[in-house]
Amino acid sequence: MKSITIKGSERESVGKVATKALRNAGAVPCVLYGGDQPVHFSAEEKAFKSLVYTPNAHTVVIELENGKSFNAILQDIQVHPVSDKILHIDFFQLFDDKEITMEVPVKVVGTSKGVLAGGVLRLNTRKLKVKALPKNLPDFIEADITPLMMGNKLYVTKLASDNYKLIHQDNTVVAQVRISRAAMKAAQEAAKAAKGAPAKGKKK
């Protein structure tokens, strides 16, 4: 999985006054969990642009001014309800020998036979939870919709991999091809026409 580097400064004071001062200065207060002790730090808000405002999944390298460095993933983010300004971010530390669970985007590939026949593709799940060692975390999960006929569903079990576990029930639908209104109307009209046609060998 691709990684983004965040450069920050460890926080000595974590009170409300210090936190407010950080935000007024254009910085975001953050906490890194998962290690022996939580690490409080801050970084410029613009440093999180390529991490937060993207549909892609990334791991993070947190580099602090004191020389400390941590591998992590974004765990939780708080934003202002009106301005969408980032108020606080929680990270979770990664270790090479410990599995981690995170959401990874689904990437649809192929052309569905059902869509070519007039069906409508519906992506039920845009992200899936995976559990894996950090080195095995995928950038995305590929969902091949080529075999899907009209009315078919693609279940999460079809996306299994030896490198990671999907934390979903087996009946979770990732994508499906639904019958479009136009196709349904055409089928109904065809059925009516067939029903109204005279039987073979009989005259009207």
Could you give a quick summary of the protein structure above?
With 204 residues, the chain is of the alpha+beta class.
What tags apply to this protein structure?
elongated; alpha+beta; 2 domains; Large ribosomal subunit protein bL25; 204 residues; six-stranded mixed β-barrel; RNA Polymerase Alpha Subunit, Chain A, domain 2; 13 strands; four-stranded mixed sheet; Ribosomal_bL25_long; Ribosomal Protein L25, Chain P
Description:
This protein has 204 residues and is an alpha+beta fold. It folds into two domains: 3-93, Beta Barrel (Ribosomal Protein L25, Chain P), CATH 2.40.240; 100-191, Ribosomal protein L25, C-terminal domain (RNA Polymerase Alpha Subunit, Chain A, domain 2, Beta Complex). The protein is built from four helices and 13 strands. It has a six-stranded mixed barrel. Strands 10-7-9-12 form a four-stranded mixed beta sheet, with no helix packed on it. It starts with a strand and ends in an 8-residue tail after the last helix. Belongs to the bacterial ribosomal protein bL25 family. CTC subfamily. InterPro entries: Rbsml_bL25/Gln-tRNA_synth_N (IPR020056), Ribosomal_bL25/Gln-tRNA_synth (IPR011035), Ribosomal_bL25_b-dom (IPR020057), Ribosomal_bL25_C (IPR037121), Ribosomal_bL25_long (IPR001021), Ribosomal_L25_dom (IPR029751), Ribosomal_uL5_bac-type (IPR020930). Residues 99-179 form the Large ribosomal subunit protein bL25 beta domain.
